Automatic annotation (TrEMBL):
Pfam families: NMO. SUPFAM superfamilies: Inosine monophosphate dehydrogenase (IMPDH). This is Nitronate monooxygenase. It comes from Streptomyces fructofermentans. GO terms for molecular function: nitronate monooxygenase activity. It comes from the Bacteria. Coiled coil: none annotated. InterPro entries: Aldolase_TIM, NMO. Keywords: Flavoprotein, FMN, Monooxygenase, Oxidoreductase. The keyword Oxidoreductase applies.
Length: 325
């Protein structure tokens, strides 16, 4: 058993988080994470309306009596989703933990605080981590360059980003990006974090709601099989390498603009991948962690063996080094 300031403050058994994942963070996965003693997040925007999110929260409660949270990804879009209504749905459903990501959560913090909702803000740079602490979040999750989804534009891998953030923060820090197992958890703790968040690892589990073909592709993929798309637009995303993501890179490298790739990167096509298992149908997020994933275990297995491996490492291999010295 590993206890950290994060696991204590957020009321979870293990210092392990399942980060929000569009189309993936639904009740089946999140309740399994909760039942395993880790902290899972339903993804608010996967639900088409705030009312649908309320129902999804109820469905998750039917599958677990342990705590779970909701991810609210705040995107700077032309026609934004009704964020205030999603926030209200979260609060009125009695959810007590939120993972915010994307833009600053500042506008939402007074309401969350007034209702005792703890906020874990996910960001990709030390400056944004420091700012998040200043505006009053309860913990920060920092995504290194390895991560699936949006690594930001600074390209700083976790080995430097995690300790650089840890030394500037007072609130607990969660390390994210590239973590799959107990080795990663121990490394994150050594670097100053109080736990880890995993996306790609939980995407490739029995309870993950995506087609088995996607999980098999993750197992087959190595750490070389991702692409960084939309770099020239300063909206970088790390996604699985396939004919579509490679085409997007090629078009933008040749001077193309967003309009030239809009159709290729559409969310609807990405969703088709997860529903059909046709891994060439569109863009889908996956991280460098793919290179460390070679099975499709249950969520409970992932959490149990991560904690057990971390415990063994600390009391075995690492302690042995100390004795030898
Ligand atoms: C399929 C998929 C979808 C994701 N969607 C979101 C999202 O909607 N909002 C968000 O904040 N992060 C999203 N992420 C990022 C994860 O929450 C997490 O930060 C990231 O996966 C960590 O890197 P890892 O995959 O190496 O563990 C997504 C990740 C994956 C794999």
């Amino acid at each position: 058993m590993l206890t950290t300031r994060f696991s204590t403050a957020f009321g979870v058994e293990h210092p392990i988080v399942q980060g929000g994942m569009q189309w993936v963070g639904v009740a089946e996965l999140v309740s399994a994470v909760a039942n395993a003693g880790a902290l899972g997040f339903l993804t608010a925007l996967t639900q088409p309306t705030p009312e649908a999110l309320v129902k999804e929260i109820e469905r998750c409660r039917e599958m677990t009596d342990k705590p779970f949270g909701v991810n609210l990804t705040i995107l700077p879009t032309i026609t934004p989703p009704p964020y205030d209504e999603y926030r209200r749905a979260i609060i009125e459903s009695g959810v007590t933990v939120v993972e915010t990501a994307g833009s600053s959560p500042e506008a939402h913090l007074p309401e969350f605080r007034a209702h005792n909702v703890k906020v874990l803000h996910k960001c990709t740079s030390v400056r944004h981590a420091v700012k998040a602490e200043e505006i009053g979040v309860d913990a920060v999750s920092i995504d290194g360059f390895e991560c699936a989804g949006h690594p930001g534009e600074d390209d700083i891998p976790g080995l430097v980003l995690i300790p650089a953030a840890a030394r500037r923060l007072t609130v607990p820090l969660i390390a994210s990006g590239g973590f799959t197992d107990g080795r990663g958890l121990v490394a994150a703790l050594a670097l100053g974090a109080e736990g880890i968040s995993m996306g790609t690892r939980f995407l490739c589990t029995v309870e993950s709601p995506v087609h088995p073909g996607v999980k098999e592709r993750i197992v087959a993929n190595t750490e070389l099989d991702t692409e960084l798309i939309l770099r020239s637009l300063r909206n970088t995303a790390r996604v699985a390498s396939n004919s579509v993501s490679r085409k997007v890179v090629e078009i933008l490298d040749d001077g193309g603009e967003f309009a030239d790739v809009r159709q290729l990167v559409s969310g609807a096509r990405g969703r088709t991948v997860f529903d059909s298992g046709d891994v060439e149908a569109g863009i889908w997020s996956a991280g460098l962690a793919q290179g460390l994933i070679d099975d499709i275990p249950t969520v409970d297995d992932v959490v149990r063996r991560t904690v057990a491996e971390a415990d063994d490492l600390i009391s075995g291999r690492l302690t042995a080094f100390r004795r030898a010295a």
